[in-house]
Specification:
- The chain is an alpha+beta fold.
- The protein is built from three helices and nine strands, in the order αααβββββββββ.
- The strands form two sheets. A five-stranded antiparallel beta sheet has the order 2-3-4-5-8, with helices on one face. A four-stranded mixed beta sheet has the order 1-9-6-7, with no helix packed on it.
- Strand 6 (129-134) and strand 7 (137-143) form a beta hairpin.
- The radius of gyration is 25 Å and the shape is elongated.
- The termini are far apart.
Length: 166
Amino acid sequence: MEEQLSSVGLGCGGAVRQLRKLLAVADSEARYKVPDYAVEYAKAIYPLHQPAKVHILAHTHTRLIHDSFREPLPAGIRSQGRIIRHTRYQAGDHSLDLRQEIARGHSQVILVGQITNQKEPHRQMPDVTVTMAAGKETVARAVSNEFGEFVITYEPRARLTLHVSG
């Protein structure tokens, strides 16, 4: 095969050299060991998926307007012991700020949130029921204080839905 490749034109020989370089890179990548800290960090952020759906006060259209996981962290913060995700949703005149937090090595997620009325920011939002569900099963429930704040602790799982109802 080597003899035939050397007898073929230069264009083919150049392609062979490129393919050999590609093969060398692929071989070195296959031997690469991902550092343990990177694996631990990936496992730690996995439970902080945003809810599959968020329903705010019977609005049919709720949209995600901010997600801290879409922004790179400053170098010094990447190694912190807690993983934190901030998200903000908008539905009509209302917004929902969420902070999900999990300590490395722990399984429960702490969800801290606040519902506010953007048209009337000084209006209090007490007694708003917040329910985390997986299908028809209620995973966790909380009621907001006079400032629209609430805290829920839950075990992460797939297809979680957050319902905020007044």
